[in-house]
Amino acid sequence: MALYSEKVMDHFRNPRNVGVIEDANGIGEVGNAKCGDIMKMYLKIEDDIIQDVKFETFGCGSAIASSSMATEMIKGQPVSEAMKLTNKAVAEALDGLPDYKMHCSVLAEEAIKNALDDYNKRKAE
Ligand code: FES
User: Fold this and answer.
1) Which domain holds residue 42?
2) Exactly one of 41, 104, 108, 112 is catalytic; which is it?
3) Helix, strand or coil for residue 105?
């Protein structure tokens, strides 16, 4: 079996939603101290619906594929649904990641949660 699924390779080669949202109202940044990879998520939320999402990932192929897939999964979703996104769901949507690459999908989950926390904080202000 190939190490990476077709879906992982596709999202790695043609990542969706790469970039920056200038007027984002939720931004989350996380890093993995062990591998040194960094991921930044930008959310544009209106009426508690994620209208747009973009990411920048300075990291491995699995981290890029995970962030690309994760952005596709939460776009158009209500905040409450996006909060439930798990790294396992992201990895499953990618048709699996090798065990030692699962932590890369954790970065995507954490970056989105951080961005949603940021949105909630700004809303409360
Ligand atoms: Fe660091 Fe993949 S090796 S996120």
Assistant:
1) 6-124
2) 104
3) helix
Q: Closest ligand 1 atom to the C-alpha of 62?
A: 2
Enter the pTM of the model: 0.95
Q: pLDDT tens-digit profile of 99-110?
A: 999 999 999 999
User: Using one digit for the tens of pLDDT, what is the confidence trace for 65-105?
Assistant: 999 999 999 999 999 999 999 999 999 999 999 999 999 99
104 is catalytic: yes
Q: What CATH number corresponds to the domain at position 12? A: 3.90.1010.10
Strand order, beta sheet including 49-58: 26-31, 38-46, 49-58
Q: 79 by DSSP, 3-state: which?
A: helix
Q: Measured from the CA of 61, which atom of ligand 1 is nearest?
A: 2
- Residue 1 domain flag: no
Q: Kindly state whether residue 46 falls inside one of the protein's structural domains.
A: yes
Q: Is 37 in the pocket of ligand 1 (CB under 6 A)?
A: yes
**Is residue 65 one of the residues assigned to a domain?**
yes
Among residues 55, 113, 118, 61, the alpha carbon closest in space to that of 87 is found at 113
Domain count, the chain: 1
Distance 108 CA to ligand 1 centre (A): 11
